[in-house]
């Protein structure tokens, strides 16, 4: 893993980069898909459990991975719109890296967990609509994502997370950014959604309403709601298991296998 620093205007942010090396046995290098991962952390921090373990899982599937350290609530700064501007900057930066790292720019995934899923859902809703994007990002978007993956994501900040409006106002004083589903249009990309119905932090209705809006707009999606398990499961395997014994449910770990199948359906990965 290597750190990469980027900036949007006068604001700096970092990426953790997990590049796949070309296979030297091949006559020519192969361009590979890429996943941009937004970990959760309640906009207070970026959870390591949803960073490197997830990135390496994508690497094992033949996908480059980046972990985006998007804007948090700190130093009096709000999350939005800066987090969306950082994502757009990252996507445009990929174009400068495509030849050296052999990236298939037509197969870029945005992956979000919990609070990081709110960033991804908002990007899918707001930033892929050219009319809305130009209000907060004046450059062209040179690379568009092909699809999204949302894990137990915050979608609507009025549905139970955050618990109080004061924290929502710190995330953004502009309520325009609170409800990602409200701004979703036909420009949105196919999305894989998973969560547990017993999530005691982010109510499962968040996932349901985003899938419902996608359904109304005719945007392809696949949703899996598991019958047990808490919030923040990450891989839901021993790899990301908390030492106290929580965050581990062998049944919910099936989400990754289901997600790989979905990526094949979306032609991000080959079917064979």
From TrEMBL:
GO molecular function terms listed in the Swiss-Prot or TrEMBL record: hydrolase activity
InterPro entries documented for this protein: AB_hydrolase_fold, BD-FAE-like_dom, GDXG_lipolytic_enzyme
Source species of the chain: Companilactobacillus paralimentarius DSM 13238 = JCM 10415
PANTHER family: AB HYDROLASE SUPERFAMILY PROTEIN C4A8.06C, PEPTIDASE S9 PROLYL OLIGOPEPTIDASE CATALYTIC DOMAIN-CONTAINING PROTEIN
Gene3D superfamilies per the UniProt record, alphabetical: alpha/beta hydrolase
UniProt xrefs under Pfam families: BD-FAE
Protein name, as recorded: Putative lipase esterase (Putative)
Keyword Transmembrane helix recorded: no
BD-FAE-like domain ranges (all copies): 32-213
Keyword Hydrolase listed: yes
Keywords: Hydrolase
């Amino acid at each position: 893993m290597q750190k990469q620093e980027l900036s949007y205007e006068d604001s700096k942010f970092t990426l953790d980069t997990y590049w796949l090396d070309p296979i030297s046995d091949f006559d020519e290098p192969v361009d590979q898909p890429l996943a941009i991962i937004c970990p959760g952390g309640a906009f207070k921090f970026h959870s390591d459990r949803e960073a490197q373990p997830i990135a390496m899982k994508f690497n094992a599937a033949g996908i480059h991975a980046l972990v985006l350290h998007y804007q948090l609530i700190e130093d009096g700064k709000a999350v939005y719109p800066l987090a969306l501007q950082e994502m757009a900057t990252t996507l445009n930066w990929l174009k400068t890296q495509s030849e050296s790292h052999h990236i298939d720019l037509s197969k870029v995934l945005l992956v979000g967990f919990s609070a990081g899923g709110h960033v991804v859902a908002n990007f899918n809703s707001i930033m892929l609509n050219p009319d809305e994007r130009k209000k907060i990002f004046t450059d062209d978007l040179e690379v568009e994502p092909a699809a999204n993956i949302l894990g137990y994501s915050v979608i609507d900040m009025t549905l139970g997370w955050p618990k109080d409006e004061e924290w929502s106002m710190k995330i953004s004083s502009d309520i325009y950014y609170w409800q990602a589903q409200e701004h979703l249009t036909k420009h949105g990309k196919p999305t894989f959604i998973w969560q547990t119905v017993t999530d005691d932090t982010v109510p499962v209705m968040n996932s349901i309403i985003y899938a419902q809006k996608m359904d109304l707009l005719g945007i392809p999606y696949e949703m899996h709601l598991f019958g047990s398990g808490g919030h923040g499961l990450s891989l839901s395997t021993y790899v990301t298991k908390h030492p106290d014994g929580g965050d581990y449910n062998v049944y919910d770990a099936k989400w990754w296998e289901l997600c790989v199948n979905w990526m094949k359906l979306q032609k991000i990965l080959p079917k064979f």
